[in-house]
Amino acid sequence: MKESVKSIPGEDLIDSLLEDDKDFAQAYGERRFALEAGAQIIAMRKSVNLTQTQLAKLVSVSQPRISQLEKGDVPQGPTYSLMKRIAEACHVSWPNFPASDQEDRKTQAS
Predict the structure, then answer these.
(1) CB-based contacts of 93: which residues, under 8 Å, 6+ apart?
(2) pLDDT beyond 80 at 33
(3) Residue 50 has pLDDT above 90, yes or no
(4) Helix 80-89 to helix 52-59 angle, to the nearest 10 degrees?
(5) Domain 11-109 is in which class?
(6) Annotated domain spans of the chain
């Protein structure tokens, strides 16, 4: 007779591992940041119709580095400085405010 294996939904398994395993929690947190940063890089790059190669040249990194960052293949994600350079190259003020919104805020504050 086959023994049945209890299935644990993915979210419950992750929640359990996050709670019970400090190393997993740290690795998950680092990877999550890297994936979110990658999604932001893609969105910024596509908002100004740049290729990875064009963006790489603008921020002085290699195209493979941009690809790694966009895929979240860099465990800790990009540095703040690199994200700022990417945002500036894509005409987005960092963090995540369109340049025109930031100018409006400066005008309103005056």
Answers:
(1) 87, 99, 101, 102
(2) yes
(3) yes
(4) 120
(5) mainly alpha
(6) 11-109
